[in-house]
Amino acid sequence: MAETVLVERDIAEGNCVLQRLDSAGLPVTMCVWLNSEQAGIWRFVLATPAADRYGLRAVYATLSQALAPHNGAADLPAVEPFVQRDHDRLPQLLRSVSAMFSITERWLTGYAVGGVSLEDMYVYRSCRAVHEYRGYTVTEEILPRYGTTYRLRYRVYGTLTLIHRQGVRLLAPRNGEAPFVRTLGITDDAATRHRLLDRAGSQPRVWEFLAERGLDYVRRIIDLILDRQITSVIPQRELLLTSEKSDFPFATQDDAALLEAEFAAASRV
After folding, report:
1. DSSP state of 240
2. Helices and strands of the chain, counted as H and E runs
3. What's the rounded Cα separation, in Å, for the pair 6 and 36?
4. CA 108, 109, 113, 116: dihedral to nearest 10 degrees?
5. Half-sphere exposure of residue 132: CA atoms within 13 angstroms, side-chain side
6. Cβ pair 162, 171 in contact under 8 A
7. Which has the minimum average pLDDT: 45-49, 87-91, 124-128, 200-204?
8. How many CA atoms lie within 13 A of 268 on its CB side?
9. Rounded CA gap, 150 and 83, in Å?
10. Cα–Cα distance measured from residue 129 to residue 143, given in angstroms and rounded to the nearest whole number
């Protein structure tokens, strides 16, 4: 299949599949359309640490369940995912790039990493780091830079457990827990104030600054969920550090204030 055959509709359909898998609580650390020149086709390839831990068979069964029509949801396009382990070669090669640069929502064509030539691909997601904390999987991803803001996104997935359904082993989040997302951003002016910016390049000090705060932030939320048995964490939040602020608000919040900010009122106890 020629590259021109992978059109905007294909990319949109793949994005629908990725969103469904996120909603199902399956941590996806890499997701691409990959042009397999030898086979002459495009493949929708994703990687998940669940495949490292539970094996490919359980992950494929989980995909089948997650992508099947249910609860009146519209049918998804006929996209057949190919699953890799998070520690396989392709996810790790892309991670070596996405550790410092965003390759999210962009084409990579004729790209070489560490002397290895990558085939043409469209990248939906490539996480710069994956963390495990108290049974949760936390992914860290640099987002495309628009305007004057650097952004780092955390997706937090609850503990997966093996369940048996009609003789098939599937993965499901414990207690049906939905994933949540936190995004941290910092403006050029704020990064300059904190002396984080280099004259050019990948800006490693910016990402180190955001990563240090972001990981501590989501770990504190996880602690509140587990230690206080609180439900209904707010699904998505984005916090922006500007030059008018010395730090993100959670840096000085105690647990009570963080609870107020991060959870729906009905779940606070």
Report:
1. E
2. 7, 14
3. 12
4. 140
5. 7
6. yes
7. 200-204
8. 12
9. 30
10. 13
| C-alpha torsion sign, points 84, 85, 86, 88 | negative
Q: Which helix (H) or strand (E) holds 45?
A: strand 41-48
DSSP label at residue 128: S
Q: Is the CB of residue 46 less than 8 Å from the CB of residue 69?
A: no
Q: E strands, 73-117, where?
A: 81-85, 106-108, 112-113, 116-117
Question: What whole-number distance in Å separates Cα of residue 268 and Cα of residue 67?
Answer: 33
pTM of the model: 0.92
Q: Which letter does DSSP use for residue 177 in this model?
A: P
The burial of 260, by beta-carbon neighbours within 10 Å (0-12 exposed, 13-18 middle, 19 or more buried), is given as exposed
pLDDT band at residue 167, thresholds of 50, 70 and 90? confident
Pairwise CA distance, residues 221 & 147, whole Å: 29
CB 215 within 8 A of CB 131: yes
The per-residue pLDDT for range 50-104, each reduced to its tens digit, is 999 999 999 999 999 999 876 555 566 678 899 999 999 999 999 999 999 999 9
Structure tokens at 193: 């104030």
Rounded distance between C-alpha atoms, residue 170 and residue 172, angstroms? 7
